[in-house]
Design goal:
36% of the residues lie in helices and 15% in strands. The chain is an alpha/beta fold.
């Protein structure tokens, strides 16, 4: 197997530096984890970009649920981040019926044209995961789904994750499956055996909780186990 990818949530430059020191392959930059992770301020992006040379995916999300909210404002934010040098993103919106909000997703994807992006854990709250994947299959730049397999987390979603890993390469399943959301070290052996090659951690990189920064030693433990 090829080297698995380890992505770590960063809230600021201190987090980013610790994640890089611990062996992270990529960062997801967000703000306000009390709301599940929102778009960070541009100044924070600039500070993080100056602090590390890791690939950096920036969250595009303005509210704590999975609705798009003010899409004009979100597109303007994406344009501003592009001007500051952002080149990778994370996004994902659902409509009132928990289907993919294609209008919102397509508008943002048009703004970030040419940039790779992850569809985040909105997929875990979708009415039909398979249908969502097929709806988004032709959108340019989509190269990963961040998912726990279930809204409750990886413990509940393991069966779904194994099934989706087995469908890799099929229509709608070409983007990389990246597992995160209640992920623990003891999950890794089963997920690796199923063919999962990308992992995403947030709280697991902060043994003292979200009010504390990323711990390089905690990230290193994940890197070594992978």
């Amino acid at each position: 197997m090829s080297r698995p990818l380890l992505e770590v949530i960063a809230l600021d430059a201190r987090d980013a530096a610790a994640a890089q020191d611990g062996g992270a392959d990529r960062l997801e930059l967000v703000a306000d984890m009390d709301a599940g992770g929102l778009t960070p301020p541009g100044r924070v992006f600039s500070q993080v970009r100056a602090a590390v040379d890791l690939p950096l995916r920036v969250m595009l999300r303005s509210r704590g649920d999975f609705a798009a909210g003010d899409i004009d404002a979100l597109c303007a934010t994406a344009e501003s981040l592009l001007e500051q040098g952002a080149r990778e993103f994370v996004l994902g919106f659902l409509d009132a019926h928990h289907h993919a909000d294609l209008v919102a997703v397509e508008r943002v994807v048009e703004v970030i044209e040419g940039c790779p992006w992850t569809f985040h854990r909105a997929i875990d709250h979708a009415a039909d995961r398979d249908a969502l994947r097929k709806q988004l299959a032709d959108l340019p730049g989509l190269d990963a789904y961040l998912t726990a397999g279930a809204p409750q987390g990886v413990d509940t979603g393991l069966t779904t994750l194994r099934t989706e890993a087995s469908r890799s390469g099929q229509p709608g399943y070409e983007p990389r499956l990246m597992v995160g959301g209640g992920l623990r070290l003891e999950h890794l052996a089963e997920l690796r055996a199923a063919g999962v090659g990308a992992f995403h951690i947030g709280g697991a990189a902060r043994p003292e909780g979200w009010r504390s920064p990323v711990d390089a030693a905690a990230v290193r433990a994940w890197r070594e186990r992978l």
